[in-house]
Amino acid sequence: MTLDLFGASDTGTYDRMGSAAGILRGFALPDVDALLPALADIQAASPFRHMITPGGFTMSVALSNCETLGWTSDRFGYRYSRVDPSHGRPWPAMPAVFLRLAQRAAAAAGFDGFAPDACLINRYVPGSRLSLHQDKNEVDSSAPIVSVSLGMAAVFVFGGHARTDKCFRTSLLHGDVAVWGGEDRMRYHGVLPMVDAPHPLLGSQRINLTFRKAA
Ligand code: MD6
Ligand code: FE
Fold first, then answer.
1. Tally of CA atoms within 13 A in the half-sphere of 209 that contains its CB
2. Which CATH superfamily is domain 14-212 in?
3. What does DSSP assign to residue 6?
């Protein structure tokens, strides 16, 4: 896979990144017209915000969530919360189009019966990045993570089980869906600083939906 920040995905291909991790190229494209208005409704109820890390840094990626459990961060740590800390009410429900897409993608990658109770929504603008991390706040790590990319392309970095393991890079383009589970579930990964290459539909932003089984 070449790094491509401008082109379209080769829809229908599966780029394997591990024995239980890969990218379904263009898998979400047929759902984009339904995903975007559903996303706007979520934003109206739980707007994007920049959270503070336990180390005291402000994240360059802006976050929101939908469904029962929302991923949050503050000076006291990372955790899942049943309420949006910005107003104390529950997160918006997961739209049906989100859930169906996540379940179909999980099944296509070999994970039947995926039942996410959390959907973290990340918004990147030029310069936003996500440093190398493991997704380890979920109680149930037997379920995969399903990650949908919309808008500007990102360079995704995928490593091993130790922070210092060698990483490889691939592009995540509008409509791509990454699915990770099994023995690849805890691999380190991150997103390089976003380059401004405006997307025809979404402009200078990238939206990433990650579906998890958190509890
Ligand atoms: C992103 N994604 O693509 C950030 N985590 O914007 C993640 O951190 C991530 O894509 C676990 C599994 C898939 C992911
Ligand atoms: Fe992650």
1. 31
2. Alpha-ketoglutarate-dependent dioxygenase AlkB-like (2.60.120.590)
3. S
CA-closest residue to ligand 1 atom 12: 145
Nearest CA to 119 among 143, 153, 91, 90?
91
Nearest of 7, 57, 3, 28 to residue 179 by alpha carbon:
28
Q: Is the whole-model pTM more than 0.85?
A: yes
Scan for tokens 């179909």, then name that residue.
Answer: 104
Q: Which two tokens stand for residue 164?
A: 């210092």
DSSP string, 47-73: --BPPBPTTSPBPSSEEEEESS-EEEE
Give the pLDDT mean for 1-20.
82
The pLDDT tens digits for 33-76 are 999 999 999 999 999 999 999 999 999 999 999 999 999 999 99
Tokens 């049943």 belong to: 82
Residue that is written with structure tokens 């791509």 in the block: 176
Residues 151 and 203: beta-carbon distance below 8 Å: yes
Nearest-ligand number for the alpha carbon of 133: 2
Ligand 1 site residues, Cβ closer than 6 angstroms = 122, 130, 135, 145, 147, 172, 178, 180, 189, 191, 208, 210
* Alpha helices per DSSP H over 58-132: 96-108
